[in-house]
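The passage that follows is intended for readers who have already worked through the single-chain material. We present the inputs for a multi-component assembly, then the predicted structure in tokenized form, and finally a short commentary. You are encouraged to pause after the input and sketch how you expect the pieces to fit together before reading on.
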Amino acid sequence: MNEFELIKTVTHGAPAQKDGLVRGVGDDCAVISGNETKDFLITTDALFEDVHFKREWISPRTLGRKALSVNISDIAAMGGKPLFYLVTIGIPKAFPLKEVEEIFEGMANSAFVHRTALIGGDTCSSANGLLISITVIGDIDRGKSIYRSGAKIGDSVYVTGILGHAALGLACLEKGIRSLEVREFIRKHDDPTPRVAIGQWLMSSTCVSSMIDISDGLVSDLNHIAEASNVEIKIFANQIPKVEEFAKAANRCNKDALTLALTGGEDYELAFTVSSYKKDLFEKMMKVVAPTFGHAVTKIGEVTAGNGVKIIDMHGANMHLTKGGYEHKF
Amino acid sequence: MNEFELIKTVTHGAPAQKDGLVRGVGDDCAVISGNETKDFLITTDALFEDVHFKREWISPRTLGRKALSVNISDIAAMGGKPLFYLVTIGIPKAFPLKEVEEIFEGMANSAFVHRTALIGGDTCSSANGLLISITVIGDIDRGKSIYRSGAKIGDSVYVTGILGHAALGLACLEKGIRSLEVREFIRKHDDPTPRVAIGQWLMSSTCVSSMIDISDGLVSDLNHIAEASNVEIKIFANQIPKVEEFAKAANRCNKDALTLALTGGEDYELAFTVSSYKKDLFEKMMKVVAPTFGHAVTKIGEVTAGNGVKIIDMHGANMHLTKGGYEHKF
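Having made your guess, compare it with the prediction:
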């Protein structure tokens, strides 16, 4: 049983409706009714030692920054603005206080960039390794949250940035490769940038019908959109954005660049669909605003009738992945 | 360095003010401005295997119930109403799925009692033991949150229920005593009841100047009120509520009943102060409503000038505790 099946199992029977609840389990954030102009977004995510990170591979400061950034990414994936965060940290015996401070400094650094304030939490000793569990609260214009369930047949599929770099960085860490050419991939793995600015812009553009952040891998996460929206998503392999150094470095790690881009986790880019009747408007607006974001926005596919995610090669044929997206297996 | 010093260290420099933030780090919950009539309360707390619980001592269902109840207790301690919860659970390899389901059933049970809905979370595999981290969101009439900082000289100090029972239950678990006479103490430790109903009533009574829930022990938690309010709190030892079986069972565990009541953690009762000029009104109201709560409400002390918590014996002399309240030591 994988993570998604498990969540379904344990939340089965959870109340679907409650006063003040706009959206419960099943999207990047839960949505709570705030006031006449705002909804609140809330999300929680944890990093466990030896599952999500190894202490010898990442500095405490970078770890802290990543722990907050990946939570903020869930707010970005709804089109929202992060406001506050709470931290539960479990600290092993004999863990240096200085490193605890550095973890919190790293979080404060991400918080400063994204104007997010620490408002609470819990510190405990841990008998079993370091762990950091964070809850982030954000807000968004009332009723404007972008869900996974809004994709419609005929919509176009886009991604921000470039995919697979974090997974390649992880592969380099695992293989002990630390050379200059791969530093950027390791940095992308260790220190992801949540796409908050473009997430908010996409929300305000009113062109976007569904959105998710890519934490488990493009195919795996687009599958959530396909399932929630009851559609099929076609991805054109030759439209996946790539950089030349990436294929070379992937080769050195005995990895296939396309497979990394399609299935590699932890990029924390945004994948989203644009309504068919707003595509031209969206493309025009993107031309104007894209340079301000500092990362690419690329059309990679389309929404069709059916279910699941299909990868289409340059000849129009279905490609079959030999393994699925990265999931936390039990 | 203990938990409280650590929290101070790492949150030093956290922004004290931000739009929409009513109260940040340092109380039972953070308070966020909601709308014209409501504020939101938010709190997070975790249970770690071999730190907060041992799997051989508690059933998965009871553990789940406790994990949610202790978080709801923080909402009660502000006078609020719990609404929603998010769960991050870290599951060791080979942990039975059935027990995961039972943990969530236990949470759902506490949630049902307190009308609280599961709205999100994160499930991960854990390399290092079971852990449950929960965030609870509640609401409260705007501006009516009861803080630790409101106690004034001349106020009276009260507690709900009876103290020390959970700590005695833990002592019994540690010593392997499971006889019928101690079952109720073990139950109190394993399955605390958050004081939500009286917490909300105390808020609406407008008589209460400060409040906290007793998670670390009466003296330790009243110290937070004393410090936040810049006052001294005097507790009269002979006014501490007690039951006869408790002293006997404490004896069997080589524990002093009074010390357990003063320093034992995890009772999740409420300690609060009543404004001096509303004391008579409060006592009159309590006589009417107390029977509906099903637990005692006892005056145990008063707020004076100074700092810290003093324990006064029947002769009016200061008592000195040989050890402080229960804290999670690093």
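Commentary: The longest strand of chain A covers residues 81-92. Residues 5 and 11 of chain A are 10 Å apart (CA to CA). How closely did your sketch match?
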